[in-house]
Every structure is written in C-alpha cells, then in structure tokens.
Amino acid sequence: MKKKLNKRSDCPVSCSLDIWGDKWSLLIIRDLMFANKCTYGDFLKSEEGIATNILASKLQGLEENGIIEKSEHPDSKAKVLYRLTSKGIGLLPILIEIHFWAENYFPIPENVKAVMKEAKKDKDLFIKKLTAELEK
Q1: Strand, helix or coil at 43?
Q2: How many of the other CB atoms lie within 10 Å of CB of 45?
Q3: Which of 1, 59, 66, 70 is within CB 3.0–4.6 Å of 80 for a Cys-Cys bond?
Q4: Which of 31, 103, 17 has the alpha carbon at shortest distance from 61?
Q5: Is the pLDDT of residue 85 over 90?
C-alpha cells in the first residue's frame, strides 16, 4: 500500500528529502548497498544504534515510497528480507558523492577509503558493477 507523500513544495530537493532526508533512512539504504544487511536484526546491529521503533517506522516509510521492498526469508517465517528497488538503487551515485564529500572533512575508515579509491578510478564503471550486484 503506497502512502501519498505530503510534499512541502515541488522542489526536487525538497521532495527527495521528504522521503530520505531524515537521520536514519540513508543509513538503512547505505547498509543495504554496502554492508549486505537485509534483515531487521541486521539493521539493529549497525553501529549508529537505531531504536527498534524508529527502525520499523523508517523501513515502512522507505517501502511505502518504493525505495525498498520486502520478501519472505527463506530460512524463517518470522523474518523478512529487505532489498532496494530500482528506485532505491538509483540513490547509489548520491551515496558515493556523499562519501567523496565526507573524505574531505572527516576521518574515514580504511575499508571505506579502499572502496572509494576504487570508485574514484572509474566512477561510472563502479556504479554500473554495484548496480548489477544490487539488482540480482
């Protein structure tokens, strides 16, 4: 069931921020893209420490806005799997640019630096390869 988005304006930045511009949504998207996290429990274990009620709300909002989808977990009826939709995967270039920006102003973990070094070599190819992996 898709919820109608209450837009503050027709500005593309404003409309986008209405979906993923809060404190948590891009971190969930990041975990789906880069950390192979795909269950509720996986997201709860992220170092940022999201509260369970906030996580439930953010997952629901991302699903309602077509950024993620859920499916049955093959090993447990009590769990669901989350994955990015093509709309969610479309945020990959934005997350990469956020990483590039952050490298200029914050200390970055070595494993993230290594990934971003690869991305900088050929950003278009990096995006193409990661997009293909995420679409599987």
Answers
A1: helix
A2: 12
A3: 70
A4: 17
A5: yes
